[in-house]
User: Which sequence fits this backbone?
């Protein structure tokens, strides 16, 4: 029962901070809201009993990705100086329509479908042992491919962002 | 414990907010943040399905790890492109970089 109350609190935090990300007028505020949203999704992973992924979520998303985004904001808004500019394009009402429609359809499908084996008791804990077995034994080839992807992306990012003397 | 539908509805809400952000925002970094929201909703869905419908295997968690990897690569590349765009055009708004638009 206490877990359930906690779940609803964290779900409210996820929804609230995500609303902040897409509706906030200031870019920096959006980035701060994004940290909250990613961290509370990490809390959802704790509720789902996958502690390893919660840790990864906090470290990579809450730490690295948001710092990267804040740095890019800093580099691309040197002249702005805290001045707010128009954040949404003229297509925003249609975007609201599309997003709202998609939300209604997705929630309707999720609630109406009769999921098999839906026990609704506490999910089984997934240990870090099982995750590493899956990652390095069963899915070894995709793991190597993912590391190659990361390497190529990093080299590409360096080449793109490099200062050229012309 | 809460049923599976709660997780699905929660991630549907977050995903739709991300779709709205991608479509409505002008700043490229804000669009990227909305994409992050969508990716997060998807990996939460993966893990919820794995935990409730197939609890003996870890495939959902592995998929989420790969989603996080691809998201990291995507953020690095996209931010490099945004910085490049800003250096060439002094803007990071996508509607002002419309040379390719007919």
Assistant:
């Amino acid at each position: 029962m206490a877990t359930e109350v906690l779940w609803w609190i964290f779900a409210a935090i996820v929804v609230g901070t995500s609303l902040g990300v897409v509706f906030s007028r200031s870019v920096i505020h959006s980035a701060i809201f994004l940290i909250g949203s990613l961290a509370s999704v990490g809390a959802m992973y704790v509720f789902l009993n996958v502690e390893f992924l919660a840790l990864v979520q906090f470290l990579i998303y809450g730490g690295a990705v948001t710092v990267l985004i804040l740095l890019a904001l800093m580099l691309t808004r040197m002249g702005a100086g805290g001045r707010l500019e128009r954040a949404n394009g003229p297509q925003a009402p249609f975007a609201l329509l599309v997003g709202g429609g998609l939300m209604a359809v997705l929630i309707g499908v999720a609630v109406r479908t009769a999921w098999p084996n839906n026990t609704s008791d506490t999910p089984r804990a997934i240990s870090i042992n099982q995750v590493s077995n899956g990652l390095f034994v069963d899915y070894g080839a995709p793991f190597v491919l993912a590391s190659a992807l990361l390497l190529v992306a990093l080299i590409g990012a360096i080449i793109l962002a490099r200062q050229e003397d012309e | 414990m809460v049923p599976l539908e709660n997780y699905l509805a929660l991630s549907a809400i977050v995903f739709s907010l991300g779709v709205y952000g991608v479509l409505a925002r002008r700043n490229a970094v804000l669009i990227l943040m909305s994409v992050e929201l969508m990716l997060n909703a998807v990996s939460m869905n993966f893990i919820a399905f794995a935990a409730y419908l197939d609890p003996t295997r870890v495939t959902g968690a592995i998929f989420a790890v790969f989603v996080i990897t691809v998201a990291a690569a995507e953020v690095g590349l996209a931010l490099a492109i945004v910085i490049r765009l800003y250096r060439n055009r002094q803007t990071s708004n996508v509607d002002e970089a419309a040379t390719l638009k007919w």
Notes: Chain B touches chain A through 70 residues (CB under 8 Å). The radius of gyration of chain B is 17 Å. The helical segments of chain B are 4-24, 28-53, 59-89. The domain at 4-91 of chain B is CATH 1.10.287.3510 (Helix Hairpins).
